[in-house]
């Protein structure tokens, strides 16, 4: 791994951000499950917990069996569920000092868990070679760094994207969106498609706090201030201008109104899947499920650029593995995580379901073995890697409440119950209350 000690400093001085939110990654909620390890004499039990779909459960269990075969001194107890209920379960186990030894972690919560001394800094295991990142670029590790410590290991990279239907663009006589296109280019393109194709919808970026964070990054700003006590921008004009761009799409009928959006209950319902929208904004690892639902090949491009603004794209961990501090098995946990990062055989089983592997040799090996849809996400992450800015520091505790707040307020804005100015003022006040608590 190149420049390890420099990664932490780069992340800490970065004042620009977008957040990760795996609840938006269309995880399928499954019932709780798992299997207790059948311990033999001399074996160490390692408890591992994750959330995800049934496909993820099945692949992870198969990879775990391979790990046990190659590491006969360790037996794995598995604990898994869907996204719903996972964090409540982790909180309950933390309160009882009974956390699993390895837990699947999300950027939305890593800062909170570190601040409560629930995670182990894995830096010593990088230094002694237990965690081998010699084949991993620094950019793929940044998301797991908190206060100069390495508390989460990226299990699969992704990046925000704009998915688009090339056939719809061609039918409307509109050029496809090439990386580097601007906000104005996007708005002009989707408005023209809307006019030429009988009211075709497009992705309305204003209902996503992630997109506002992208907009802030382009102004060299971050959503939160350095000590996480308030917003990181002093002038509400940034949010007002962003919301007014969104209102332009709403007023022109290009962005789907709230009653239409309410029809979408999962990725299989997305308007682009059913040919009712020209664009959508998935994380890159969602393109596989999106194209499978659509039954056709949708393309991906970068998010809009700002003329004269800073680069805002970044690589983020879709998910991480963290070792918890409530047991004494951090060395075994590091061995387990290293296996998921570097084992080609394990990654053949896992099949990039969590995102693009961070090991270059694993990526290169898998590319010719995965589906064309999965190759799309590999290609897109490589595209973003070439232009990416450093990821932001992890979001503060209370991020989930702030996401919920923004979603509630955006609905009021869409129904014209709030102006952009009223939204910005109220959002600032309520965010400060959440962070103060």
What is the gist of this entry?
This protein is of the alpha+beta class. 42% of the residues lie in helices and 11% in strands.
Model description:
This protein has 437 residues and is of the alpha+beta class. The protein is 42% helix and 11% strand. The protein has helices spanning 4-13, 54-70, 86-95, 107-115, 123-127, 166-172, 183-196, 209-217, 237-251, 258-261, 287-294, 330-342, 344-350, 360-367, 372-385, 399-414, 420-436, and strands spanning 33-35, 44-51, 74-81, 102-105, 145-146, 149-150, 153-158, 162-164, 279-280, 299-301, 316-323. α2 runs antiparallel to α13 (344-350), α9 (237-251) crosses α17 and α11 (287-294) packs antiparallel against α15. The chain is globular. InterPro entries: Bact_solute-bd_prot1, SBP. It comes from Shouchella rhizosphaerae. This is Extracellular solute-binding protein.
Task: Name a few traits of the molecule.
single chain, 437 residues, alpha+beta, D-Maltodextrin-Binding Protein, domain 2, 2 domains, six-stranded mixed β-sheet, three-stranded antiparallel β-sheet, 42% helix, globular, disordered N terminus, SBP, Bact_solute-bd_prot1, Extracellular solute-binding protein
